[in-house]
Amino acid sequence: MWIRKALRDFKKGVDSPMPTQAVSNEEFIPRPQSEPQQRVEQLIGEMSEMRAKKLGIDRRSFMASTMGLATCFLAQNKVFSSQIWDVDEIETWEQAATEEKFPKSEYFIIDLQSHFTNGLPIGGFRNAEFVKNMGFQLKNDAEAYGFRNFVKEMFLDSETMIVVISGVPGRELLRDANNKVLVDMERTPGVSGKILPSWLMSKARKEINEMAGSQRALNHGNLAPNHYWNKTTDSMDKASLIEQMEREINVYGISSWKWYCHTDPAQTGNGFQVDDDNSQFFIEESRKRGIKLISVHKGYAYQSRTLGHLANPKDMEKAALRNPDFNFVVYHSAIKHGSSEPNWKESNQYDPTTGDFLWHNVLMDIKKRNPKMNNVYCELGSFFNTLSVIDPVMAAHGLGKNIKYYGVDHVVWGTDCLWWGSPQWAIDAFKRFQMPDEMCEKFGYKKLTKKDKEKIFGLNAARLYNVDVKAKRKALPADVLTRIKTAYLEGGGQRSNAVYGWVRADD
């Protein structure tokens, strides 16, 4: 059985601001907590208890501080015998030490992968066939994934400045039986698309930006080539697809499409590939309407036992070369489910001698064959997070290869939150991340400079989404959301340390 990580931690008395095991975003089966992860968790508990007692504060207050998070990275370095995390012992005792070393808001952070459910009941979703295929029936947890908590965790409890709201695959109904154009909830009456459809992403974007008085949110469109299908002719319903395309662009104000090739919202029995004829038709119609950015979920595909192979990134090559004026963002950096676990039973998932991960290596090979190809980007959501928790050496390999082959200009930040709770721990992890000398020498990776991290955290995404960083930085201090955050923190606001993703109940 699965259990939410936050509930598991509550039952065990764990209050770590950094996850102590890899969690599932419901796109792969959670793996058991490894022995090193158990030692990290135990060490964090022991070190935090001792420090909190000497400082004369309760452990929860300690763990919610920068000292608590620094303790987590120190524990990781000790257990994994790694110096990947730049952390000083003094940071675990003095909050000012971290504040001086890593000042807040020094990076312009754009999170390209953020999710919520607006508190909609999601029990139906979790009873859907592709979830059942994973072997478990999960309970609702609407509040944790709701819009209010999304704003709190993403903006008040983290340094994230702009979010791209990303949905889950699902089509919207266009008209009723009388040909009346449907609106909002009428468009998503069933399970498919109800979790975070395009209309709801658009509504949330507007609410956040109106509340802030500036642009703090962008949103994807869920439309994909196989969403509108004529089952009689077994072909794309081009008229319906174009109608929805124009609605998402002109009414919903989308900035990018989000594709899941291995899903089947139209229930035709088929997914699609980025390089097939239907996708090319979509691309050409989108080009006419000025949207030239497609975000593609690749990797993590356990939900579909019949279509999961379509999450392999091999189809990115032809599509990118054929459409050089489009940019393609490969989500999760295409890592295959299971490959991030050292004790994964299937062979050839991860090779510690080379640092290769299944499917991620396919994405790397594409760039090796096409060094001049310049329109494919590697996104880090649930890639850097997961690998960091499992073993920082794995994170070094994953990030190192992304940068080595695609270049630091083509790696973009994303977290997959709210599945991980507040993204702040991941932000702090990336600030502290440094490539070990021996891995640079052996594998040709490069040391990360502050300028490199600035690009990955937000400047690369700003280029993709046409965000004026200089103007935005100037406007942020007067932003209403900034003022709300300041009042929240001055009033003693603290992030929950809750990870909402799923782990095994027996861990």
Question: Your description of this structure?
Answer:
The protein has helices at 5-12, 35-55, 59-63, 66-80, 95-101, 123-126, 129-132, 147-156, 198-212, 238-250, 277-288, 316-322, 360-369, 384-390, 392-406, 424-432, 437-443, 450-465, 469-475, 480-490, and strands at 2-4, 110-114, 162-165, 217-221, 229-230, 235-236, 256-260, 293-297, 327-331, 350-351, 356-357, 376-379, 411-412, 502-504. The chain is α/β, with parallel strands linked by helices. The chain has 2 domains: 2-101 and 488-504, no CATH class; 110-122 and 156-481, TIM Barrel. The protein has an 8-stranded parallel β-sheet. Strands 1-14 form a two-stranded antiparallel sheet. A hairpin with a 4-residue loop joins strand 10 and strand 11 (356-357). Helix 2 (35-55) crosses helix 4 (66-80), helix 13 packs parallel to helix 15 (392-406) and helix 14 (384-390) runs antiparallel to helix 15. The protein is globular and about 70 Å long.
Descriptive tags:
507 residues, alpha/beta, TIM Barrel, 2 domains, 8-stranded parallel β-sheet, two-stranded antiparallel ribbon, 40% helix
